[in-house]
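Consortium newsletter contribution from the modelling node. Members have asked for a concrete example of what our holo predictions look like. Here is one, prepared for the adenosine-5'-triphosphate complex that several groups have been discussing at recent meetings.
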Amino acid sequence: MLTVRAPATSANLGSGFDVFGVALGAPADIVRVSRATETTITVTGTGSEYIPEDPAKNTVGAVAEALDAPAHIEIDKGVRPSSGLGSSAASAAGAAVALNELYDRGLSRKELVPIAAEGEAIVSGTAHADNVAPSLLGGFVIVTDDGITQVDASLPVVVCLPETTVSTRDARGVVPEQARLGDVVDTVGHAATLTVGMTRNDPELVGRGMADEIVTPERSALIDGYDTVREAALESGATGVTVSGAGPAILAICRTESDRGAVAGAMLDAFDDAGIESRAYQTAIGEGTHVYGDRS
Ligand SMILES: Nc1ncnc2c1ncn2[C@@H]1O[C@H](COP(=O)(O)OP(=O)(O)OP(=O)(O)O)[C@@H](O)[C@H]1O
Ligand SMILES: N[C@@H](CCO)C(=O)O
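And here is the predicted structure:
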């Protein structure tokens, strides 16, 4: 048996739709694997009742197949499905790391990215890697067709998750097919600002660089209470606020760890005022999947 902890992630960061992602310190999935002649899956934890145990329908089943590594895979979900926190990707990244170790496949974390992304294709229709890559590598990750660039960024953040769900498939349906050149120019500037901010761990640059007028306005309309929650976080000291992944989680960048309490409280209160229950994670951009159980 081998056990790993695979972190939640926040994709897009506003200006980097389908390109940027960060690993979060919390929440996380715990994935345990043991060798078997055919793959079986059990799922416990948050939202497990909505997650199929059929290997053909669970992201980890595709990973086991891609690595030719049949196993019994136990997933203890800490990342709620359809949250915008890369729930399906956390399991896929965890399974990729665990099975790579269990079967001595010898692949690097970067080489595991396309394998873990196979799992994402099962749930969202495309093998996008902007969640699996940061869950595998940690920090801030830029995913393009040409490859993956990773920076060990570390910044305090708050992620507020309402008790509502948005499926990635639905949220991809509202993304505009075309954009005005002026908006594209602004977004390139914001994405560049954010990237420099990540290399400097500068919350002002990262917060400013999350602005986006192309995808985020359409996505945020799917999240009840978004505008008031965003406003409340900014008034409480967040440097930037945007939709996390496909939503409904909302990501706020903070200047210091001690700012997180006020930002989290303001976001929770604003959701509460809108009649929506929510929970807040006071966390940070953090490390990737961690192996912490030896083979036994
Ligand atoms: N191991 C898994 N963990 C979580 N969800 C899974 C898993 N395998 C399959 N699924 C399915 O994936 C869907 C959730 O994935 P989805 O991409 O919509 O949300 P997400 O992973 O939380 O968020 P996002 O990609 O927006 O950050 C659910 O329908 C769920 O049943
Ligand atoms: N980039 C993807 C990530 C989904 O978490 C999207 O926003 O649709």
